[in-house]
Every structure is written in structure tokens, then in C-alpha cells.
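Here is a typical protein record:
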Amino acid sequence: MSYNTDRYYYRKSHGLCVDCGEPVDGDRVCCAKCNERKNAKSAIYGKEHREERNKKHREKRAMRLAMGLCVDCGKENHNGKALCDACSERKNKQARERKAYLKKVGRCTCCGAEVPKGRRLCAVCHLKEIEREERRSQEEKDRINKRKRQLKNEKYKERKDNGLCPSCGGEIDDKAYATCSRCRARRRTLWRMNSKNTDSMKKENGICLWCDDPAVPGRCYCDKHLQEHRESAAYARKFAKHDIIRKYLDASAREAKWKRDKREGRRVEREEGLNGKCGQ
């Protein structure tokens, strides 16, 4: 070994700056003064030779790709892609780890900038993603969606085989269900909210619950679906195998008629300026 190499490892092992020999703080190999000088020199060199380096890098990648080699490591590549299997797996792993870390610390998963709570991308990266999505062809969109569905199904199967909740990956508290209690509660709440809001808005605006056509005044369905509903009820009432089912259908029909008459009566009272509940 040369003298410079011995001096480098000697200073590094004794907590000294490898350039000037002054003491350093922490695990650094250079003191603050030498580190600042090196950073300034690297910034100037990088700015002056960035285009030249990028050009050489693009030429090298194009040459390797034309020769059927991996553009990253230069080894033989037989999968027909730019990267070999090893380099592709390594880069994907690094990208996943970086994305998970940025998401954990609350930063943009693309550029690392600060984002509001609950956001994945900053405003700039979000606009760029929208532009990329608009430029994609329909074939590319179908390929991406197919790949997403495949990954989602693989993750679902892996979590289910390991005895975890396939939705969130958490522990299942009740083995009688396929998902955890938290995911079940969230899905029930969302389903009820969406169903309730949709039906309520349609009823308030006088729209059929089964389609978007105007509903019959005083009813929840349009002419077409109201007739289908009546025919289905009559068919079920006619061919009911047990008397208890027929009685249940008749009772449901009577209850629906009573509610309909009650709503109509309240509407008339409100139009006359009376209280819809007490009639005064």
C-alpha cells in the first residue's frame, strides 16, 4: 500500500479529517471546512459537465440496448427488456423502499417535497401525473390497469394465505370472517352512506330510484319501473307457495299504501298552511 492510503485509513480510524488532519464530528471523514470546499467544487464541476455526462450516459445505454445487454450492468439480457431480471428487481425494491419512507414521513412520494396530511403527491407532481395519464394511449392504459389488477389479486391471495386481512393486511380478530372488524365496519358505513345519500337525493329531486327518469308524482319510480314493480309483486303474490308469504306480501303492500297516503296528506296540509304532523 502507498503512503497516501496508509495515511487515509490512519486518520479515518483516529477520527481525523482525511485531507487536513483536523478532528471531525461524528462519523464524517472530512471536517466541515474541507467538506464545504469539496461540495462547492463538485457543484461547479457538475454544472459545467452535466450535459456532457448525460449525453455519454444516453449513448452508452443506447449501445447496450442495441447489443441486447442490460443497460445498467452491461450483462447479457434475454428477457427482451432494457434491464435484466436482477437489476429490475433491485431497482423496484429501491423504489418501493423510497416510496414507503417518503409516505411514512409525510412527503411527496415522487419528488420528496412536503405535502398536506393525507396527500400522496404535491401539486406539481399531481399535475404532471395528470398530463402523463392524458398522453397515454388506450392500449397502454389497458396494459397498466391489467397489471394493477394482477398485482392486487396477488397481494390479496398472499394476505389470505397468511391468515391476514386481505384488505389492509392486519390481523383478523374473528376467524369466522375473511376481513378484520375495522374493514368490515368501514365498508358497511360507506355502503350505507352512499346508498342513503343516493336514494335521498333522488327522492328529493323527484327521480326514479332505478334510473334517472322523472318519477311519478307521489311515487319513487317512473312509469316503466312502477309498472314492473307492480307486476313483480302481483306475480310473487299469485305464486307464493305458503300462506305466510302471501300474508307478508299483502301486509307490505298495505303498509306501503298507508305510508303513501300519509305522505300525501301531510303534503296537502303543508300546502294549506297547516302543520304536517298535528294538522293545526
Observations:
- The mean pLDDT is 81.
- The two ends are 107 Å apart (CA to CA).
- Residues 1-66 form one domain.
